[in-house]
Design a protein that fits this description.
Layout lengths: L3 E3 L6 E4 L2 E3 L5 E7 L12 H14 L3 E10 L2 E11 L6 E10 L4 E9 L6 H10 L1 H4 L31 H12 L4 E2 L1 H4 L17
Antiparallel strand pairs: 1-9, 2-3, 3-4, 4-8, 5-6, 6-7, 7-8
């Protein structure tokens, strides 16, 4: 199904091919896309890439918490943490992913978890501690960004230890544990590297 040939699935139970869950309702999935990756910039253009990712997520009604460059089994990749409104309910869903792009395809490891009946406790407690002036901040990748879910201090990793059962904490922890164990098919690893998004077709000339 994907170029991913192995990863540590300790604690996860397979629900269907390529999809697993654990006892805390964390969902893990793997994907393969046989198309030019839809990343908005090359990985060697980090500022442009992060700004465009933040704008794209906000435009879809969510919020980009962070985007970091790294490697998965030696292949350059980008990690994103995103929050989106929970469909048909209160609260948010948190998604963490590694996208491993090549010139004409990509593979993705994704982890997600949703808030349950109790929502907003992490945000409220951090806000009460630091105050509104320090809590809400311009997005670090796109300071003039508007729309989508707000960027704020409550999503920072420094608070994870205080809220060990929060879905964002669970997503970060699962992705951090699994990533070093991912192995990729050598045929995928030797494909030409991602060289940026496909240019839009030029308008016809008269």
């Amino acid at each position: 199904m994907t170029p991913i040939t192995g990863m540590d699935l300790t604690g996860f139970t397979e629900r269907e091919p390529g999809v697993w869950t654990d006892e805390r309702n964390v969902l893990l999935s793997v994907h393969f896309f046989p198309l030019v990756p839809d990343l908005p910039a090359r990985l060697d253009e980090p500022d442009r890439l992060r700004a465009a990712l933040a704008q794209g997520v906000a435009g879809a009604g969510g919020g980009l918490i962070e985007a970091r460059l790294g490697v998965v089994d030696g292949v350059p990749a980008v990690r994103q943490l995103i929050k989106v409104p929970r469909p048909n309910g209160r609260g948010q869903v948190f998604l963490g992913s590694w996208t491993v792009p090549r010139a004409g395809c990509s593979t993705v490891v994704k982890v997600q978890a949703a808030e349950g009946a109790m929502t907003g406790m992490r945000e409220a407690m951090v806000l009460a501690q630091v105050g509104p002036a320090d809590y809400f901040r311009p997005h670090p990748y796109a300071p003039g960004l508007s729309g989508g879910l707000p960027y704020h201090l409550g999503d920072h990793e420094q608070w994870d230890a205080r809220f060990p059962d929060h879905p964002l904490t669970l997503v970060r922890a699962a992705l951090s544990r699994i990533t070093p164990t991912v192995t990729l098919d050598e045929r995928f690893k030797v494909l030409p590297p991602f060289d940026g998004p496909t240019a839009a077709a030029a308008p016809p000339t008269r």
